[in-house]
Design a protein that fits this description.
Blueprint (H helix, E strand, L loop, with lengths): L1 E10 L1 H9 L4 E2 L6 E12 L2 E8 L8 H4 L8 E7 L14 H13 L4 E5 L12 H18 L4 E5 L3 H10 L3 E4 L9 H7 L4 E4 L17 H19 L6 E4 L8 H9 L12 E3 L4 H5 L10 H12 L5 E4 L2 H16 L1
Parallel strand pairs: 5-6, 5-12, 6-7, 7-8, 8-9, 9-10, 11-12
Antiparallel strand pairs: 1-3, 2-3, 3-4
Bound molecules: 9-methylguanine (9MG).
9-methylguanine binds next to strand 9 and strand 11.
């Protein structure tokens, strides 16, 4: 039997402060939200899952990972810079270093705290790019951004150890690996030698085939277990826990129903005790729930899903549309704090 605790009854603003002060709620992930109730989930065997709702006082001794401080205070906007000719969302408009650097600079000016540079598309059905080509694409972009933005966090979006190392040498300070350091056997060692944040994302299968028949016993619990195991592997390789960021991998080997379940029950992942990154921007499930719009017409759904993630305590949002997301977050935060 395995026991999971999902914070629910989330409060924000002055209601959160008052409930915490009165001992009726606990802060969620050391942030601005608080939770007053907990769903206790017990997985007895595959398919045999029992759920019960209790108060925070009933399970206070078990809740430390959900309430602990986090090294990254959120919400932080991570702007996506695709250095790929076949990107599903921008058609490769940012493949050349010059436009990609300008695009990243504009994102930073608009409020992105992190820019994420990728040279290999990981959209469903994407074909892998040779590592040398991936390095050729991302290194000039990273070096160019670093030359104009000394302090910004530059993240390298790659599954390949050689690309990670080349990107770190060029000025990247964060690693974002959609395979959670499982794709390339050398990537654990590269991540351990680095010093910045490392994103471990959940993916079932690989980008070429992951959407063919995704299947889980319970998607939320299965993704939680898999991330827990990848955190343990990263720690054993020498990555410090305070460098780890996790991501449930929306759209990576998941149906629309899987994505919705992960977003709806996102607060469970705070039990892993590390910051939570979520990427929903322009993803296909938005179009599936709407009118099959192409990627560049999915802003409304991206903002709605992104705000849902933030309202469940996600600390980092990975997005294409930085100014619009920053505006939406400022509005949501102002209402929350009013
Ligand atoms: C590279 N990439 C594409 N989608 C992503 C997501 O949702 N999360 C992370 N961490 N990386 C992603």
């Amino acid at each position: 039997m395995k026991r999971y605790l999902r914070p629910i009854g989330l409060l924000s603003g002055s209601a959160a402060h008052k409930a915490v002060a009165a001992g009726l709620a606990l802060p969620l992930a050391g942030g601005a939200l608080a939770f007053s109730l907990v769903e206790v989930i017990e997985r007895m065997a595959p398919g045999d899952i029992r759920r019960e709702i209790v108060t925070v006082q009933d399970v206070a001794g078990e809740l430390q990972p959900h309430i602990g401080p986090r090294p990254l205070a959120g919400p932080i906007v991570m702007g996506i810079v695709n250095a790929t000719p076949d990107s599903f969302s921008d058609g490769g408009a940012h493949f050349d270093a010059g436009p990609a650097i300008a695009h990243a600079t504009a994102m930073i000016q608009a409020g992105a705290g992190i820019v994420d540079i990728g040279g290999e598309s990981t959209r469903p059905g994407a074909i892998p790019v040779p590592v040398d080509e991936e390095i050729r694409r991302v290194v000039p972009v990273i070096a160019g951004i670093r030359a104009v933005a000394a302090d910004v966090t530059i993240s390298i979006d790659t599954r390949n150890a050689r690309t990670m190392q080349a990107a770190l040498d060029a000025g990247a300070t964060m690693i974002n690996d959609v395979s959670a350091l499982a794709h390339d056997p050398d990537s654990l060692a590269v991540a351990a030698r680095a010093t910045g944040p490392v994103v471990l994302m959940h993916m079932q299968g690989d980008p070429a085939t992951m959407q063919q028949a995704p299947a889980y016993d319970d998607v939320v619990l299965d993704v939680y277990d898999q991330l827990e195991s990848r955190i343990a592997t990263a720690l054993a390789a020498g990555v410090a826990l305070d460098r780890v960021v996790i991501d449930p991998g929306i759209g990576f080997g998941k149906t629309v129903a899987h994505n919705l379940a992960l977003l709806a029950r996102l607060s469970l992942f705070h039990g892993l005790g590390v910051p939570l990154l979520v990427g929903v921007s322009r993803k296909r499930f938005i179009a599936r729930l709407s009118a099959d719009e192409p990627a560049e017409y999915r802003l409304g759904g991206s903002l709605a899903a992104g705000l849902a993630a933030i309202s469940r305590g996600a600390q980092i949002l990975r997005v294409h549309d930085v100014p619009e997301t920053v505006q939406a977050l400022r509005m949501a935060t102002a209402i929350r704090d009013a």
